[in-house]
Amino acid sequence: MTNNKITKDTSCMDDFDKNSITTDQAIEQIFNTISPIAENEIIPIRESINRILGENIESKINVPSARNSAMDGYAINKKDIPKEKTKTLKIIGKSLAGSPFTKPIHNGECVRIMTGAVMPVEVDTVVIQENVSISDTNTEIIIDNNTKPEANVRQAGEDILAGDIVLKKGKNLTPADIGLLASLGLSQIPVTRKLKVAFFSTGNELRSIGENLAVGEIYDSNRYTLYAMLSRLNVEIIDLGVIQDDVELLKQAFYKATEQADLLITSGGVSVGEADYVKDILIDQGNMNFWKVAIKPGRPLTYGKLGDTLFFGLPGNPVSVMVTFYQFVQPAIKKLSGDSSDLPMAIKIPSATRLKKKPGRVEFQRGIIKKDNDNNVVVEKTGPQGSGILRSMSDANCFIILPLDSETIEPGDLVEVQLFNGVI
Ligand code: AMP
Ligand code: MG
């Protein structure tokens, strides 16, 4: 067989759909239609993990507030460091963290000092205790000419200066940020209010956990993956259950969601099947921005607005739900809540396996980043890649992103992988 390049007009050989927009166009349309909610609330610092900072935080104090020792040892004046050989200094007292030494210190004198203790004004250097010899009576130390002037001292304001902007509005607060806020003495933190996100599943074949399955029925798993991903994004969750493929019931559920939520997510019923009503209801009751994106899995993705409520109609297949949530709903939630943190990072590494691909759609295959026998980092796909095979997501730790026009990837070829962050 000749190695003919597949072109866009060999439609049976590709995945092109002229009605689909690209992932970049979809993201652009989503971002263009979202303004961040501008409502703040003040909450206790311990509850602020993963919340979005609503204002810049300016420090009112220096951190540390005073010059202090970084080590356990002896505080001396650098003028006492001998040019040659050694010098004996008299120990005249101690400075402990929380109990500073307050008497004057003269030439030839030093004080015992502990980590975090305030440095008296007359001294500027800490010699660590391992580098001195102590007299038998414990009243003198001997230092030598290797003693480094000004060593082991933390300057006041070295970490933060009064007036510094320590954290910017839009920061998604991490444990380190919470420590930083505590070091400024702040107990109440301004954050944006939590987004209210409603969701429901559609489909007559869906049964809830605890019910028995008749032939052709399946358990509704999408509501559980959505619930779990939304929990990790720290939003207020409104679960509207399973709605049958019935236009009136669907309209009622849409209405109920728009009454209470900033964002509505549904799964199923957005394709071109006979029971796929979601898109038509969106067009009828709101505005539809797009309904097909050139991705696999997840092409029939519907996006629009119902009044002030943003709407994502995700496809029904469980993997499609997770892919489209990660790629489109997650950025939308971040923008809407004013979260300025980066979207999940993509890096290029070699593929350990052959990856079948037709041009026409960006593919999000499920992969495992691991080390091969030679200790090189590679990515391997996780078994069968069907859009209904949720196991491919559960086994994975990344998406392997194959571009729109690319064709089959051979082992050793570089591929782009996007790490799962704390959402999947
Ligand atoms: P649909 O887009 O409604 O045609 O659904 C596509 C496929 O996804 C069908 O095989 C559905 O049975 C399945 N599906 C739809 N919703 C769910 C759900 N909530 N949980 C698991 N599978 C689903
Ligand atoms: Mg359906």
End-to-end separation in angstroms reads 42 Å
Q: Count the strands?
A: 26
Strand order of the largest sheet: 7-4-6-5-9-8
The hetero molecules present are: adenosine monophosphate, magnesium ion
The total of helices stands at 7
Quaternary class: single chain
Residue windows where pLDDT falls under 50 for at least 5 positions: 1-12
The helix content, as a percent range, equals: 10-25%
Structural class, from helix and strand content?
Answer: alpha+beta
Percent strand equals: 25-35%
Largest sheet: 6 strands, mixed
Determine Rg (CA atoms, Å).
Answer: 31 Å
On the 0 to 100 scale, the average pLDDT is 95
Assign an overall shape: elongated
What does it look like?
By secondary structure, the protein is of the alpha+beta class. It has seven helices and 26 strands. It has helices spanning about 25-30, 175-185, 220-230, 245-260, 280-285, 320-335, 390-395, and strands at about 40-45, 55-60, 70, 75, 85-95, 110-115, 125-130, 135, 140-145, 155, 165, 190, 195-200, 205, 220, 235-245, 265, 285-290, 295, 300-305, 310-315, 345-350, 360-370, 375-380, 400, 415-420. Strands 7-4-6-5-9-8 form a six-stranded mixed sheet, with no helix packed on it. It has a six-stranded mixed sheet with strand order 16-13-17-21-20-18, sandwiched between helices. Strands 19, 22, 23, 24, 25 and 26 form a six-stranded mixed sheet that branches. Helix 1 (about 25-30) runs parallel beside helix 6. The two termini are about 40 Å apart. It binds adenosine monophosphate and magnesium ion. Adenosine monophosphate (AMP) binds near residues 203, 206, 218, 269 and 317.
